[in-house]
Amino acid sequence: MNLPELALDLAEYAQGVEEYTADSYDSTTKTFTINDLSGQAGVFSGGGTLWYTDANEEIGMREITQAAGTSIVIAEALPVDYTAGSVLISPSQPFKMRDFVSAINVVLSLYPIIDTDTTLDYDQEKREYTLPYGVTNDIRRVEIYRDELVGEEHYEVYPYWSLANGKLSLYGNRYRYTNDNPIRITYVRNHGRVSYTDDVDSAVRMDYVRYSAYLNLYRSQIQKRHKDNPISVDMFNEAKKYEADFTARHIPQCDLIKKDICYPYIS
């Protein structure tokens, strides 16, 4: 899953997408010729969105800068191995491509996902470790590599830890583990914004992004039009219902692993 796929899903829900067969594509002028568009191309000009499938069967997208007659010009050339075929197009109104991208990235920037870090090495003589760069304070599990175990089970859950001021403290039987073996920290972080070529973590729920981004689209539109568009207000209220439903079902928080039980330190 990538940003173009999420944008396509959102566009299909928010304003509709049309499929056409591209009769030709000129990489020099970045122009598609689509004979079936004759007389109606203008609605896509000035910020519409075009989706295509590349040679690896992955979905990509481009902004439409101009459209007239049977021609559509895109802002950026397609990969050199692109062969003209079916394309999907969404008009520039009410939402342009940049609107879809912005609305989705607002959601992803705050979307919680699970991540792991194994950059810390165990030291029998060391009790306190500074959290590696990027590891948040929302730690759910600590594991330490044991040579005696096999395969993925090399990592053993370690319940004797505490966290304060960006420092991870380990206590208990310090000689159970070998020096320099990795410590695996499982933690929660925000997914973060993505570009067109970035993959989106598989843990992200497409339906959550769709409806939450839909809410962002209409919130932005209401702000721009100062609440004078009753249709926008209705769509915004519809999106708020989806938001309330996700909140009631604790999505996406329910997809995160719960924090392990940690035993208190006894000196």
Descriptive keywords:
267 residues; Elongation Factor Tu (Ef-tu), domain 3; elongated; alpha+beta; 24% helix; seven-stranded antiparallel β-sheet
Number of helices: 4
Top-tier CATH class of the largest domain: Mainly Beta
Poorly predicted ranges: none
Give me the count of strands.
14
CATH architectural group of the largest domain: Beta Barrel
In CATH, the topology of the largest domain is named: Elongation Factor Tu (Ef-tu), domain 3
Helix content: 10-25%
Order of strands across the main sheet: 1-7-4-5-6-3-2
Residues in β-strands, percent: 25-35%
Radius of gyration (Å): 25 Å
Distance between the termini: 49 Å
For the sheet with most strands, the description reads:
7 strands, antiparallel
Reconstruct the topology from this structure.
Blueprint: H1 3-14, E1 18-21, E2 24-26, E3 31-33, E4 48-53, E5 59-68, E6 71-74, E7 86-90, H2 97-110, E8 112-121, E9 128-130, E10 139-145, E11 155-157, E12 161-164, E13 167-170, E14 182-190, H3 206-225, H4 230-248
Antiparallel strand pairs: 1-7, 2-3, 3-6, 4-5, 4-7, 5-6, 8-14, 9-13, 10-11, 10-14, 12-13
Helix pairs in contact: 1-2, 1-3, 2-3, 3-4
